[in-house]
User: Which sequence fits this backbone?
């Protein structure tokens, strides 16, 4: 069916875009400016994120107009960019009077979520690796003609994938740099991460993003948001994080200098300073990532292309984009002459190491997990040794046999395709597949078709069947 109403898009709805048709699979989330859906491109079956602007009905006209401008600006910017640390925009169009863009579906979580989940300071070497990735993509943006200044760098605008690759998201306040201006027309950004010039005291340039990256790294290293317009004092970071040495602290302090002239003068210079603080050679996690294919009808765009040259990236001509089949990224760490690289943070560890010395992630495939299943008819344990592990009721008439069959245990409450357990990088997830009676995770009803991470001790409940998730 084709949608004709202005209600939220529902699963199975098909949307015609400028470069293809997309089937809505389910909602990922929604906020004040719009909604994001998981969508399948019908031309090749690939999965994307479809983002539509959907302003609040009671928003004043001026606010709605500004939100639309920011949405369209973000779509136009991302459509022209190609870099492994930026999501790809495959299509943008207008649907029922609302702007829509179809972009790469980035798995994982934001750095803000990572900090909240960890509730502790991150290790110095791990944070240095994150900083190097972000500095490289900032250098790419600053090297464009005209340069693009991101202007809102903070942990909530940086996604980290299960492969350890960082992706900048939300380009709503990014702007092109205009040489010769004494100050910006509009002051934007987030308190604590924005430098003094972004508060209407001057014009933002590449050094403004350097400040914001320094503030972001400060947050990761201290587990505390930066204080607005305050450069950290010597010893302040090391007081909260014993893994940080004095020289690394000085790098962060310089990046966050109040005076633009006292900071690193480019993201590339900042990157070199971060590289100098690594204990082992840097391994770029983006080197093993294969980007999703763009639509065959997408025209060649005259934009800069990411090209690595040594430790710094520069801008260069864009080759013509050819249609290619989607290849899943390889996340197994490649062998290194003197060790093995962590598939999360890229740190090179000693040969035979079981855990990464940088981020603590297991090296090699994740251990096999188990379910302790309790039903009115008994209790047993099942290994999660097949992916995906489908949960539901068998139906011999349709040759349907889920891996975990509840037909004789739940008194008819489970749907045939009720839920699924899958593996996302080094952790497991559970997803309700739009079941009739729902799935509970720790007594909370799961939203349909939204994956939720599983942790040891979590309890999944379907009717009278309870499944306790256990590690290996």
Assistant:
């Amino acid at each position: 069916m084709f949608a004709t109403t202005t209600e939220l898009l529902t699963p199975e709805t098909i949307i015609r875009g400028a470069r293809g048709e997309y089937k809505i699979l389910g909602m990922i989330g929604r906020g004040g400016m719009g909604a994001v859906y998981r969508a399948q491109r019908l031309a090749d079956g690939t999965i994307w994120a479809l983002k539509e602007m959907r302003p609040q009905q009671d928003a004043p006209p001026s606010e709605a107009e500004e939100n639309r401008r920011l949405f369209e600006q973000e779509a136009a910017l991302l459509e022209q960019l190609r870099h492994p640390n930026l999501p790809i925009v495959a299509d943008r169009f207008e649907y029922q009077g609302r702007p829509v863009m179809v972009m790469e579906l980035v798995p994982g979580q934001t750095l803000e979520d990572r900090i909240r989940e960890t509730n502790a300071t991150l290790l110095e070497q791990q944070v240095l690796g994150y900083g190097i990735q972000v500095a490289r993509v900032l250098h790419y943006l600053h090297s464009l003609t005209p340069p693009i200044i991101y202007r809102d760098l903070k942990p909530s605008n940086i996604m980290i994938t299960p492969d350890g690759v960082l992706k900048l998201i939300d380009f709503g306040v990014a702007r092109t740099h205009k040489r010769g201006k004494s100050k910006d027309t509009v002051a934007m950004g987030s308190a604590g991460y924005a430098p003094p010039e972004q508060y209407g005291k001057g014009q933002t340039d590449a050094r403004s993003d350097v400040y914001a990256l320094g503030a972001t790294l400060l947050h990761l290293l201290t587990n505390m948001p930066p204080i607005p317009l305050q450069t950290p004092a010597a010893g302040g970071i090391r007081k909260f994080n014993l893994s940080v040495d004095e020289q690394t602290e000085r790098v962060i302090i310089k990046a966050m200098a109040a005076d633009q002239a006292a900071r690193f003068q480019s993201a590339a210079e900042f990157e070199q300073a971060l590289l100098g603080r690594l204990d082992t050679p840097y391994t770029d996690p983006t080197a093993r990532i294969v980007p999703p294919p763009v639509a065959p009808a997408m025209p060649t765009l005259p934009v800069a292309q990411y090209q690595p040259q040594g430790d710094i990236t520069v801008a260069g001509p864009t080759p013509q984009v050819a249609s290619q089949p989607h290849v899943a990224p390889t996340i197994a760490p490649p062998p290194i002459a003197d060790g093995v690289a962590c598939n999360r943070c890229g740190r090179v560890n000693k040969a035979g190491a079981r855990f990464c010395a940088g981020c603590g992630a297991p090296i090699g495939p994740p251990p096999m997990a188990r379910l302790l299943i309790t039903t009115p008819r008994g209790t047993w344990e099942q290994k999660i040794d097949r992916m995906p592990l489908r949960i539901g009721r068998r139906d011999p008439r349709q040759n349907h046999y889920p891996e975990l069959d509840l037909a004789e245990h739940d008194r008819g409450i489970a749907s045939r395709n009720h839920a699924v357990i899958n593996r996302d990088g080094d952790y497991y997830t559970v997803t309700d597949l739009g079941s009739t009676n729902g799935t509970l995770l720790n007594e909370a009803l799961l939203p349909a078709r939204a994956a939720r991470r599983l942790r040891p001790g979590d309890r999944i409940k379907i009717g009278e069947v309870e499944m306790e998730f256990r590690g290996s």
